[in-house]
User: Fold this.
Amino acid sequence: MNIILLGPPGAGKGTQARKLVDERNMVQLSTGDMLRAARTSGTEMGKTVAGVMDRGELVTDEIVIGLIREQLESDNAGGGYIFDGFPRTLAQADALGRLLVDMGENLDCVIEMQVDDDALVDRITARSTCGACGEVYNDNTKPIPANEKCTNCGASDFQRRADDNEESLRTRLMAYYKQTSPLVGYYYAKGDLRSVDGLASMDDVATSIASALRQSE
Ligand code: ADP
Ligand code: ZN
Assistant:
């Protein structure tokens, strides 16, 4: 099955996507991760998007739709795709719909992760990730182990994202409300929307997502 995880920055989309990858053999397509990879490898596109991302603004539809199209054309996801951080605009949502139709695929379900804004700010400013495997840590709820080795892969390369600061987060939240939140209505009207409480514990959120997915199977 193919699903979208929809929600503001810090809602926990990446964390839940990783669980679905482990448990259901799905393929996670995160445009944020793809854009960060382009920056790290220093491609022209990576250089173009760096400033935009650090400010917390959205990269152009053309770039992110191109990235998703390339991935869909290159892999073959047996367990289905999890779109994480894409689509973020109505134009991206329409483009994804067309890409899936062209591949003879469906969108089965859109999971909206609801989290209140104060919690987002707290979560994001406390967030770090393992540079080697992407495991997500939080200073308050899941601190980096005392031996400074990743619990998942053992590496000692913890990183904070350049855009995980208060100013950029405010811009990211505004981009979410102005450009992305209309997708909640869009997918509701299509009959694809399921909302879960993203403030619950990680395991409870995973349980709610699993039950939403069962209903759409
Ligand atoms: P977040 O944790 O804030 O949800 P992501 O890792 O998904 O962030 O994305 C980080 C940044 O990458 C965004 O703030 C934006 O600049 C850019 N980006 C990611 N996905 C998209 C997209 N679908 N459309 C436009 N810009 C995007
Ligand atoms: Zn790791």
